[in-house]
Amino acid sequence: MYVYSGIALRIAQSLGIHRDGELTNTLSPIAIEIRRRVYWELRMLDLACAEDCGFLPTHIYGADTKLPLNINDEDLTSNLLTENEGVTDMTYCLIRVRFPFPFSPPVKDKRRKLIGKVRELQPSPRPHQHPSWLPALHRSPHIFP
Questions:
Q1: What is the pLDDT of residues 98-144, one digit of tens each?
Q2: What span, in angstroms and rounded, lies between the C-alpha atoms of 40 and 45?
Q3: CA dihedral over 126, 49, 1, 66, signed as positive or negative
Q4: How many CB atoms lie within 10 A of CB 44?
Q5: How far is CA 23 from CA 27, 29, 95, in A?
Q6: Is the pLDDT at 47 greater than 80, yes or no?
Q7: Positive or negative: CA dihedral 72, 75, 79, 82
Q8: Nearest alpha carbon to residue 18 among 66, 86, 68, 56
Q9: Residue 36's pLDDT band (boundaries 50, 70, 90)?
Q10: What are phi and psi for residue 67, nearest 5 degrees?
Q11: pLDDT bracket for residue 35 (50, 70, 90)
Q12: Comparing C-alpha atoms, which of 73, 61, 67 is closest to residue 9?
């Protein structure tokens, strides 16, 4: 899942979703809000997958997408989007974005210790050995012009 979340994040980056839609004057407020929601959900997915696998999350350079508005999904029908003060469909997502790591430090420390023990139990990597045919391939000038 970690690889797939990285692929999804890179596809979103190639589509320009990591850049906030307000920078262009061609998008409607609804399209801008949907782009923000997609981008931040992909970021949270990548963060969760990276944490589960013991890796760092993908860093997107030049990302300036603002947080989504705290509005219900059914409010995305008009071009006039006003943020709500109470609990909406986006409240849980916004809490996850603003506080992405577990709240309890003991849980975080326990997870780090477990990851450290797993890494200690893994066998050390063997030195890389090239196949016997690889040096002959590099010496053949007619194969690679």
A1: 776 654 455 556 656 655 665 565 555 555 555 554 455 444 444 44
A2: 9
A3: negative
A4: 16
A5: 9, 12, 25
A6: yes
A7: negative
A8: 66
A9: very high
A10: -70, 150
A11: very high
A12: 61
The runs of H, that is alpha helices, within the chain are: 2-14, 29-53, 91-98, 105-121, 134-139
For the chain, which residues make up each domain, given as ranges?
2-103
Average pLDDT over residues 71-97: 82
- CB-CB contact of 93 with 104 (8 Å): no
Backbone φ/ψ region at 69: left (φ over 0), alpha (ψ -120 to 50), beta: beta
Q: Which residue has the tokens 């890179």?
A: 10
Taking residue 5's Cβ as centre, other Cβ atoms within 10 Å add up to: 21
pTM above 0.70, yes or no: no
In this structure, what is the dihedral angle of CA atoms 78, 84, 86, 92, given to the nearest 10 degrees?
70
